[in-house]
Amino acid sequence: MVLAPVPDPEVPARAQRRRYSARYKARILGEYERLETPERGALLRREGLYSSHISKWRKQRDHGALAALAMPVGRPTAHPLEKEVAYLKRENAQLQADLTTARRVIEVQGSSPRCWIISPPAAPSNL
Q1: How many angstroms separate the CA atoms of 127 and 125, rounded?
Q2: Residue 35 and residue 40: Cα distance in Å, rounded?
Q3: Are the CB atoms for 60 and 68 separated by under 8 Å?
Q4: Residue 102 gets which letter from DSSP?
Q5: Which pLDDT belongs to residue 63?
Q6: What is the DSSP letter of 114?
Q7: 83 three-state secondary structure
Q8: Longest Cα pair distance anywhere in the chain, in angstroms?
Q9: What is the full DSSP assignment across 102-119?
Q10: pLDDT of residue 73
């Protein structure tokens, strides 16, 4: 007699939602609608689905959302110009900060008495 291995008792850090492709949803809906009532429950149990999945997918299909079902999940990608605008705004802010610092340095140097002393011109070294 062979004993089954002991399952890992560790709980995953975070459960992940299942994602269903449009092709999978269409296949399950077609199969579900061809079956008799007792067999439908067996299909749902086999696939690990709930009847709410079926009703939601039917509504989506009936509203012509099959194309929307195939759309990728998540945020749409940013337009390249939007990325460039964000980069230029950050660069502009940095340059403005540098300019403010430079103006302060010039102002301090201009008000310093050391700057008021005029030093004689350097003698030419070619003589």
Answers
A1: 6
A2: 6
A3: yes
A4: H
A5: 78
A6: G
A7: helix
A8: 113
A9: HHHHHHHHHH-GGGGPPP
A10: 75
Length, in residues, of the chain: 127
Cβ neighbour number for residue 5 with a 10 Å cutoff: 6
The reported pTM is 0.42
C-beta atoms surrounding 20 within 10 Å: 14
C-beta of residue 46 within 8 angstroms of C-beta of residue 86: no
The per-residue pLDDT for range 7-53, each reduced to its tens digit, is 777 776 777 788 999 899 999 999 999 999 889 999 999 999 999 99
**What are the φ/ψ torsions at residue 12 (nearest 5 degrees)?**
-60, 150
Assigned token pair, 111: 């008000």
62-102, pLDDT tens digit by residue?
Answer: 877 666 667 777 787 878 899 999 999 999 999 999 999 99
Distance CA 79, CA 51 (A): 39
Do 51 and 29 contact (CB within 8 A), yes or no?
no
Written as six digits, the tokens of 92 are 């502009």
CA distances in angstroms from 5 to 2, 9, 11, 104, listed in the order given: 9, 12, 17, 73
Provide the token pair at 118: 């005029």
